[in-house]
Amino acid sequence: MKCSTCPLLTEGRSCPGEQSKFVCSQSHQPGLIAQLRSFATAVVHHVAAGRPQASQAQREARLAVCAACPEYDEGRCRLCGCFLATKAGWADQECPVGKWMAIVPMPAERLREAPVEPALA
Ligand code: SF4
């Protein structure tokens, strides 16, 4: 994806903004590799958390926040590249800039919050 201000608009190569935020300050969908990495991380977290689902009301509330967000782009988030209809329905997921939070703790938080067994003497 290239925006109209991209200095490489007429060139065939990919947008430099996908590779370095220092090159371009425009908002972009992450590159394909970054999107795949983001999605894989979300799936791993979701499965590790036991595949928790948001309620319909929670999902709709999240999607309403996204719909009013400048990073919203035709059902996807420009920051993480995720399809929001899916991401908003996974209770363990959260907005990358904190506009909506996980409904259930992420697996790493669960481990940190787990009670520590007292050492046996
Ligand atoms: S996930 Fe967060 S940053 Fe992305 S579109 Fe939704 S509210 Fe905006």
Quick structural gist:
This protein has 121 residues and is mostly helical. The chain has one domain (17-102). 33% of the residues lie in helices and 3% in strands.
What does the model show?
18% of the residues are buried. The protein has helices at 32-48, 56-67, 84-87, 107-113, and strands at residues 72-73, 76-77. It has 4 helices and 2 strands, in the order ααββαα. It has a two-stranded antiparallel sheet. Iron/sulfur cluster (SF4) binds next to helix 2.
Instruction: Please state how the strands of the largest beta sheet are arranged side by side.
Output: 1-2
Report Rg: 18 Å
Mean of pLDDT? 78
Number of helices: 4
Number of domains: 1
Quote the distance from N terminus to C terminus.
62 Å
Strand content: under 5%
Main sheet attributes: strand count, strand direction, barrel closure: 2 strands, antiparallel
Helical percent range?
25-40%
* Ligands: iron/sulfur cluster
Q: Which labels suit this protein?
A:
121 residues; mainly alpha; 4 helices; 2 strands; globular
Which helices and strands appear, and what pairs or packs with what?
Elements: H1 32-48, H2 56-67, E1 72-73, E2 76-77, H3 84-87, H4 107-113
Antiparallel strand pairs: 1-2
Bound molecules: iron/sulfur cluster (SF4).
